[in-house]
Amino acid sequence: MNIGLIGYGKMGQSIERQAILRGHKKLFITNKTPSYKELKNSNIEMIIEFSSPKFAVSNIIICIENNIPIVSGTTGWDSYFFFIKNTCKKYNGSFIYSPNFSIGVNILFYINKNIAKIMYKSNLDYKVSIKEIHHKNKLDTPSGTAIALAKDIILENYCDNWGLVSLKENKRYIYIYSKRIKNIIGTHSVLYESDIDSIEIKHIANNRTGFALGSVIAAEWLYKKFGFFSMKDVIKLNEMK
Q: If residue 115 lies in a helix (H) or strand (E), which one and from where to where?
């Protein structure tokens, strides 16, 4: 495919390397929202977007409106989620969004969701907390991955809400501990605690390769498909019972 990149920081450069290794051509790189003319004249077949919450929505919309498939890993724009989903439907667009494109993290999502389902159905008494640590340059706090983990637990009716303040007395509340440390790529853990025992699931990213490779795999999967998708569709987690 002819791939364009919006966002050319460390993540964008890692995506570039993985795309070339997998035989794709890099035709377009920018750190700002491209114009209609730039997109029209670029001969791009796919955009991979890792920018910032401030520009992500305009980046996504301009690609969808120009019928260019787009994969986005930028987080922090949740309030526009349904607007973008409806825009994708309106233009019969091709779009994949994931707060994390790592295959390992998406397996973590699946395990976390199923643990929450078991906890709720079995009426078990565990207090849930989430811990995420990233590098100092990460713009959003908490991470989109941590929020996705919390939302999945809430969707399974085991908890009611989440926040950045610890409320130990409220077992229906998920405390997200968020910290930024130099040279930490990304660590996420979910801890279920009771008086009897504790259950912890955890993912540690050793480098950016997993995120970059996952986004390229997602782009390959999206090619010539239409609709609004997530990484669950790409690795077929939605098909598992």
A: helix 103-121
Rounded distance, CA 75 to CA 177, Å?
18
Strand partners of residue 176: 130
Measured between alpha carbons, how far is 144 from 137 in angstroms, rounded to an integer? 15
- The span from the CA of 135 to the CA of 207, in Å, is 11
- Tokens coding 223: 């090619």
pLDDT digits (tens, 9 = 90+) for 169-194: 898 999 999 999 988 889 999 999 99
Residue among 113, 131, 134, 203 flagged as catalytic = 134
Check whether 70 has a pLDDT greater than 90.
yes
CB 69 within 8 Å of CB 45: yes
Cis preceding linkage at 142, omega within 30: yes
- The whole-model pTM stands at 0.84
Asked if 138 is an active-site residue, the reply is yes
| CA 102-145-78 angle, 5° bins | 120
Which domains, ranges and CATH numbers included, belong to the chain? 2-97+209-239 (3.40.50.720), 103-205 (3.30.360.10)
| Residue the block writes with tokens 């540690």 | 204
Q: Is 40 a catalytic residue?
A: no
String of b and e for 17-37 (b: at least 16 CB within 10 Å)? Answer: bbbeeeebebebebeebbeee
Instruction: Summarize the confidence of residues 51-70 as an average pLDDT.
Output: 94
Instruction: Name which of 142, 231, 235 is nearest 188 in CA terms.
Output: 142
Q: Which strand (E) or helix (H) includes residue 210?
A: helix 209-222
What's the token pair of residue 97? 């969004």
Active-site residue, selected from the candidate residues 138, 151, 188, 203 = 138
